[in-house]
Amino acid sequence: MAMSCSSSSVRLRLNLAPSRRRTAAPANLQVLRCVGMAASPLRLCATRATGGDARQPFDHVPRGVEEIGEMEEEEEGRRRRRGLKIAVVGFGNYGQFLTRTLVRQGHTVLAHSRSDYSAVAAELGATFFTDPHDLCECHPDVVLLVTSILSAEAVLRSLPVHRLRRDTLFADVLSVKEFPRNLLLGTLPEEFDIICTHPMFGPESARDGWGGFPFVFDKVRVGDCPARHTRAEAFLDIFAREGCRMVEMSCAEHDAHAAETQFLTHTVGRTLAMLELQPTPINTMGYETLLRLVDNTCSDSFDLYNGLFMYNNNSTELLNRLEWAMDSVKKRLFDGLHDVLRRQLFEGSPPLDSVSAAAAAAGSPPDDAPIDGDLDSDNDEEELE
Q1: Which of 122, 162, 334, 337 has the fewest beta carbons closer than 10 A?
Q2: Mean pLDDT to the nearest integer, 18-29
Q3: What is the mean pLDDT of the chain?
Q4: The architecture CATH gives domain 76-249
């Protein structure tokens, strides 16, 4: 009998539970029924009421394309007004040189390098990060690669780009352009923007300002979103505000020109340096120019010069042309000298001194050489008259 009561009580509880769920109703619905109003579906309004957004980054809530674009544009406008947050990756001499201007313009600079430049960064008004993970977690607007050409690939692959925002802008300042272009396109996610640049100046040449110096850039990949265009223009505006001559050209076109404007200049400067030229009491303006060329080119590291050769497809051809040009000049000189010697040996001409031989080699007959150092041909004609 006890067992029967026990089981009956259990059955009673099980039967009542569904009944309670069916009949129970929220208080607001009961009020609505009392006044004869139909109940409307319940909606969650907490996120709107608090003025916030409870969505997580992994939530995908459908939203109009125009609304997203307007929000991003407004956010980018706010960023531009307060300055960009720029991560300078490679905080050596050139990175510090650029940082001075970036900070002066009001941008936030986050610095990273293999060596510890914490003290230098603090002095310049930048924040230094020894760990690239910490750097990327600060979500910079722009990551600016200021590395050597030879180390660019290793440095880029060491960055945890998955910690960055998916629309981050990457830029570089390498002296060659096709190499970093292909490297960035092949390494970075397709959502990232890319601008390849080359400031045609350095700490020595632009120590008094950047005004008038060329700044070459190529917008390799910039998203269609207005906010991305605004950010790209804000980055380029850094150099335009300093008076740089803004030159937009493709990376391939840049390298074709740079083989002559840079690699040739460095090659001639380093070749002259092998001669160990020294100032003399009778320096000419041309000789002074050569001495300055040696100083300017040799003040840069050999790695830079080697990078200009290794990573520019046009450098090998230019080096061959330079060698051909030198051989052509030597041939012309020695051919003239050989002509003089042949006349002495086979035509019975009297031996010539060094000055006459040089004049003959240059194509001027010895008889036309000036007399008594008088180089004014008009005066000679007046005396003859």
Answers
A1: 162
A2: 46
A3: 80
A4: 3-Layer(aba) Sandwich (3.40)
Q: pLDDT tens, 106-158?
A: 999 999 999 999 999 999 999 999 999 999 999 999 999 999 999 999 999 99
pTM equals 0.66
Q: Where are the domains of the chain?
A: 76-249, 258-324
Residues in contact with 222: Cβ distance below 8 Å, sequence separation at least 6, in sequence order? 169, 193, 194, 195, 228, 229, 232
Phi, psi values for residue 85, rounded to 5°:
-100, 110
Q: What is the pLDDT of residue 77?
A: 56
